[in-house]
């Protein structure tokens, strides 16, 4: 199939960007979206043009590196990562708009690449957990209810791709932050620092310039790991509790 | 950090007031005596522990604090959110997918609807509380004031639009406030919160609208 892509081209973080159209020939429907971009980049390189810069790493949907806004939707029309989106989701002759995540907390570095270090700093602000090191503990020394284990695991599948921020009408990273809060907050290992963690992470979230949550749910609708919206309400519960109790750390 | 909680608590407090208010307004179906007796009792509520009119003044002051808190939080959060999404205007270049995946009309219009509601409340206070604007003719009789007021077509129109705005604002607002306070614990809770939001938004908007429209069609006369 033959498609046209309109891509956001921006040479560096300071320069102005614009949408540029490219035609891509001989696209197989079995190609992933990133392979289609690889084919286009190969051609651009041969023609002596600057290839389109985009992030990718594992290309199997588990690392969270790739991520672009395709036709106005974070990660495109299928609820998965961009690398797991295939060209069969598009039709011959389609015009596809590709843009970087757009948020104050995610400055654009080049073309489709944004700097997501803000997420690392949010995780850092959560601090440590007091898990004892040394010999492996007995398997059942710290019992975890099945339900809590399941929910904690669901939250822990967050790969930090940033789609929640890109989709949120307020540019909020609450779904990401809430996933990190939830997966430790539900486990016994996460209890001692539960208050300081939520206070630290939310303060850093706001510091990074992300917006507030208005419970619209766009984030959960595009999340490739299907982190449920209720994790945000859990974060709110933890946050209000911590604010009432006061920061002990 | 607590701005969203302030938003939620002040909003829910105003919803409680609206529930009491709609109960009062519906007294109009009881006829002139019932309605006027209710109005008189509001002024005397709490006497002799409170003095005459004190009850209404206390409610008024508390509501004013709630409204100001709500507006203060909304303004701060809105400015922050607009900055976070890189400007209030167009965010992505594409013309596709602009309505998102699941945002509802009510959530879309929450902010602008709040501004409309503010204007509506000012009109409503000048119209039926202070009595500065009395299109149908002034009268000391509360029931007669109601009748006079809703004989005027554009007053009915303003109240109808105002109540539609209330309905939409509460549909997303109630759900969002309770979620912000941590009540959204799972799928079941989500369904319950949404049902509650629908009941409150429809109940309050329709409850208020019954009276002006009953006057228009002549049920209340």
Automatic annotation (TrEMBL), chain A:
Keywords: 2Fe-2S, 3Fe-4S, 4Fe-4S, Iron, Iron-sulfur, Metal-binding, Oxidoreductase, Tricarboxylic acid cycle. The keyword Iron-sulfur applies. Residues 1-102 form the 2Fe-2S ferredoxin-type domain. PROSITE patterns: 2FE2S_FER_1 (PS00197), 2FE2S_FER_2 (PS51085), 4FE4S_FER_1 (PS00198), 4FE4S_FER_2 (PS51379). The keyword Transport does not apply. One of its GO terms (molecular function) is succinate dehydrogenase (quinone) activity. It is an enzyme of class 1 (oxidoreductase). It catalyses: a quinone + succinate = fumarate + a quinol. InterPro entries: 2Fe-2S_ferredoxin-like_sf (IPR036010), 2Fe-2S_ferredoxin-type (IPR001041), 2Fe2S_fd_BS (IPR006058), 4Fe4S_Fe-S-bd (IPR017896), 4Fe4S_Fe_S_CS (IPR017900), Beta-grasp_dom_sf (IPR012675), Helical_ferredxn (IPR009051), SDH/FRD_Iron-Sulfur (IPR050573). Binds 1 [2Fe-2S] cluster. Residues 149-179 form the 4Fe-4S ferredoxin-type domain. Belongs to the succinate dehydrogenase/fumarate reductase iron-sulfur protein family. It comes from the Bacteria. Its EC number is 1.3.5.1. This is Succinate dehydrogenase iron-sulfur subunit. Its cofactor is [2Fe-2S] cluster; [3Fe-4S] cluster; [4Fe-4S] cluster. The gene is sdhB. It holds the Pfam family Fer2_3. GO terms for biological process: respiratory electron transport chain; tricarboxylic acid cycle. It comes from Microlunatus endophyticus. Transmembrane segments: none annotated.
TrEMBL record, chain B:
CDD domains: SQR_TypeB_2_TM (cd03498). Gene3D superfamilies: Fumarate reductase/succinate dehydrogenase, transmembrane subunit (1.20.1300.10). The chain crosses the membrane at residues 54-75, 108-133, 153-174, 195-220. It comes from the Bacteria. InterPro entries: Cytochrome_b-558 (IPR011138), SQR/QFR_C/D (IPR034804). Keywords: Membrane, Transmembrane, Transmembrane helix. GO terms for cellular component: membrane. NCBIfam families: sdhC_b558_fam. This is Succinate dehydrogenase. It comes from Microlunatus endophyticus. The lineage of its organism: Bacteria, Bacillati, Actinomycetota, Actinomycetes, Propionibacteriales.
